[in-house]
Target: YbjN domain-containing protein
Amino acid sequence: MTPEDAHSFESSPQHLNSLRAFDVLGRFLDEDGWYPRRVKEKYSYSMIYSGRHGDLRCFAIIRVNEEEFIFYAIAPIKVPEEVRPAVAEYLTRANYGLRIGNFELDFTDGEVRYKSSLGFAGQELTVDLISNAIYPAVHTMDRYLPGLLRVSYGGATPFEAIEEVEGYMQDKEE
Model:
């Protein structure tokens, strides 16, 4: 954050809190090995997360006026138009029971992303809060990515794909 950035906003406590949050976010991403790139003219960073099942494009965003932190993990595919209804069902089934975050499907272009967010109005955005939003997002997207691929390209039904992903995980947890 440069001094020019700070002057581009009114110096209200809300804006100053968000600017401090953006600074904490950048330091966390650097120190945690994310290799973030600042998105020009935005209070956000882009980066890549290499999971077991693929590379995810990620965005960490501070919504300055709202004092919100949003993290997106984006699937490495665009879902073909003809299978988007089946993928929507798969993602709805995946969303059921998730505690932190949710899947989203853009029916226009087929983008699938996982979103985790939190508000920090009037309080400090800490490294722990950032970590607790980011890691569930990338781990959940990576966990459900094989099922997404099977529904998108492998002819699996949403039910079959969820059974494979969640059944496999239950076996590993026991």
